[in-house]
Design brief:
With 699 residues, the protein is an alpha+beta fold. It has 20 helices and 26 strands. It is an enzyme of class 2 (transferase).
Length: 699
């Protein structure tokens, strides 16, 4: 089975690997296909379209076939159009779209990634038949910003020298290892080292045959209100590239997790490594659609069913979240519904073609919304149920195995599946989802709200007080003066009633729920605590936030351990005072005070002189040319300034920091810890002032 598909000068090369090494097979007879249907309510016909395409230079062959243009449709005639090259698919689709009146023709199977398209149309499974060899090459950003490269790391081993020596070192390692996969700190290494080889007249070759390709340029995108950056993507023949600056699944799940998803999605490793969660979920859905003879729409659009104003109001709600009981609580237990949203989909047969079906229009299945759900098995449960079952089996094997290597592999696979399951619910409400429908999104939320409210009532009836609940998780503590039904019994009964497993997750010695920064109300997703096995759990607080400097994060964790040992805010503030002394003496390593933020726009588009802007100015001056969506890391050295002198970048010689700025950040982190015991910022400031004054008087 090929693990890599290359398109070179219009010819397909499929690469396989085994104990004897890698080899390729040429497929010069492959022709990509797209499909078109005609609107029955217009004058457009497939015969007319066929006539329009007869003399199109990219069209090779056409034929009428029976396919379903959607899950709610029966089989009908569609026109299959074979084109001469992969790049012509969109060109022909655009040509078809412009024929006749707007909407007269619909195109299908258009916007597939190129390797995935080949595997889908030819039935090829790109899961490697044997273990893949890898080579990791890392280069610091300043080296890439100002080539030629004179320093890099290969598989953890550092090298430095002249540009020619570096090129020869990489080439020697490529020949020795003969890797199937290149794991690069940045795919920009491909053109950078290739250009350096050309300038130095060094014989250098990234792939197993000469040449390299740029598949896509860099771009900026918006996702759920956040700005992201997609680096340029490159290809070399015979080797899959994993760009560590542009990979979610490799970062979260490693190579084993990626390969597990390759087998499920039929998306080859290189494409899967840079794909989003939704992209991989869509690939899995496309495989299921093809099994049902359903085509994939190009420009996905699904009208929203008519709803009354009351239904619109009731439907426009998310999962239920209870306001947490702020404070420090002992003897706390956490229980979670296993994969709640995917299990709701599967248990209640929620799918775009089953929701609000015509055949059961008089039924009122969905609580609060009264949507009907068809009894015919939906495609979405068929997609998700194997993932749920497989993850359950993997978790069971993890609990039983004593083999550390096997456990690591299983955890990688479990993590990869988890991310697909996590996203499947939200993807139903995504406007560009190929097979999504907003009514599915609304129904899933409605069931989740009902389940959580019923669960709360059951626990309270059996002697347990709810401290907090977030969609699929609850935290309970015994009600004083009442007898308690064992939690395992309650979990079993609720699981049987709901049809979704409620699992006992953790016993906590204590849990602290944190108030909002400007209110005494509880913050919905900020808490910390200590499990009965001694492990600490942190959620939503500074030490879990990616922008928090490493030293601040570690100090907040130390304050939590102090709180655990002493149970008083005075003890935490005493520890804070010691940390402030260390900070103000200059003893903290500036590299441990780096702040990482993501640029949300181009430098010239910012209206205010923030610290991030100062960092972007310095980065631009240094030649890094940061783009929207990219991270920039810096140390604040003088926060009173508004210029680029306010900060220093992580790659500069860091020898100082703004003590007052980081002291404020440290005190804020302390307030989060002490707030559960009733001490807010003003009380912490008074403690510090009293003890500083006392120390001066004693002196």
């Amino acid at each position: 089975m090929p693990f890599k598909i290359d398109y070179i000068d219009g010819t397909v090369y499929s690469w396989t690997t085994d104990a004897d090494g890698a080899s390729y097979t040429i497929h010069d007879d492959y022709t990509p296909s797209l499909y078109a249907s005609a609107d029955a309510d217009s004058e457009a016909t497939l015969a007319t379209l066929r006539g329009n395409l007869e003399h199109h230079p990219a069209v090779i062959e056409m034929a009428l076939e029976q396919w379903r243009p959607g899950f709610r449709h029966d089989h009908e005639d569609v026109l299959r159009i074979d084109v001469d090259r992969i790049d012509a698919v969109r060109t022909v689709a655009s040509f078809i779209r412009d024929r006749g009146q707007p909407g007269a023709y619909r195109c299908f199977n258009v916007d597939f990634s190129r390797e995935f398209r080949y595997c889908l149309e030819t039935g090829v499974d790109p899961t490697p038949a044997s273990e893949l060899s890898t080579l990791k090459v890392d280069v610091e950003p300043p080296q890439l910003a100002e080539p030629p490269i004179t320093e890099l790391t290969i598989d953890g081993e550092s090298f430095s020298g002249s540009p020619e020596a570096i090129l020869q070192t990489v080439q020697n390692r490529l020949e020795t290892v003969d890797p199937d996969v290149l794991v690069l700190s940045s795919a920009d290494l491909i053109p950078t080292l290739s250009a350096s080889a050309g300038e130095s007249n060094v014989d250098f070759q990234w792939g197993r045959v000469p040449g390299w390709q740029r598949l896509a340029g860099r771009s900026t995108y918006e996702s759920y209100g956040n700005t992201g950056h997609s680096p340029a993507r490159y290809n070399v023949p015979g080797r899959a590239i994993i760009d560590r600056s542009n990979t979610f699944f490799y970062d979260q799940s490693g190579l084993d997790g990626c390969l597990d998803l390759v087998s499920r999605s039929r998306k080859p490793l290189q494409e899967l490594s840079w794909a989003s969660i939704g992209n991989v979920l869509t690939a899995i859905q496309i495989r299921e659609a093809r099994e049902r003879d359903v085509l994939v729409p190009w420009k996905s659009w699904r009208h929203e069913f008519f709803k009354s104003m009351r239904t619109l109001h009731d439907a426009d709600r998310g999962g239920y979240t209870f306001s947490p009981e702020v404070g420090f609580h002992e003897d706390v237990h956490e229980l979670d519904f296993s994969s709640l949203y995917p299990n709701i989909i599967c248990t209640y047969n929620i799918s775009p073609e089953t929701i609000r079906c015509e055949c059961h229009r008089d039924r009122k299945d969905v609580p609060g919304l009264e949507y009907a759900i068809c009894d015919e098995p939906g495609y979405l449960p068929d997609v998700l149920q194997p993932l749920i079952d497989d993850r359950d089996e993997i978790k069971a094997e993890i609990a039983e195995t004593d083999d550390e290597a096997r456990e690591a592999q299983l955890r990688s696979r479990s993590s990869a599946i988890k991310w697909i399951l996590v996203s499947c619910f939200g993807y139903q409400g995504f406007s560009n989802a190929k097979f999504g429908r907003i009514e599915c999104h609304e129904a899933i939320n409605a069931y989740a709200r009902e389940i959580l409210l019923d669960t709360k009532a059951v626990f309270e009836q059996h002697g347990w007080r709810l401290l907090h609940g977030i969609v699929d998780s609850i935290w309970v503590t015994p009600i004083e003066g009442e007898s308690q039904t064992p939690l395992e019994d309650l979990a079993r009964d609720i699981s049987e009633e709901v049809g979704i497993r409620l699992e006992y997750e953790s016993e906590f010695d204590w849990v602290a729920f944190v108030p909002l920064a400007d209110s005494d109300e509880g913050a919905l997703t900020k808490y910390f605590g200590k499990r009965s096995d001694g492990e600490y759990k942190y959620r939503g607080i500074a030490c879990r936030q990616r922008s928090t400097p490493e030293w601040i994060a570690s100090m907040q964790q130390e304050f939590i351990r102090t709180l655990d040992a002493q149970r008083t805010p005075e003890a935490v503030c005493s520890h804070l005072q010691q940390a402030l002394g260390e900070l103000r003496s200059g003893a903290v390593d500036p590299t441990d005070l780096l702040i990482t933020n993501r640029a949300s726009k181009r430098l010239g588009d910012y209206q205010q002189s923030t610290r991030t802007v100062a960092a972007l100015e310095r980065a631009t001056e240094a030649g890094f040319n940061p783009q929207p969506g990219q991270d920039v890391s810096y140390v604040v050295v003088d926060d009173e300034k508004n210029s680029r002198e306010r900060v220093q970048l992580e790659y500069e010689d860091l020898d100082r920091y703004d003590q007052d700025f980081y002291a404020e950040m440290l005190i804020d982190a302390t307030e989060t810890v002490c707030a559960s015991l009733g001490w807010r910022r003003d009380r912490i400031d008074r403690y510090l002032a009293d003890h500083i004054n006392g120390s001066l008087q004693n002196y």
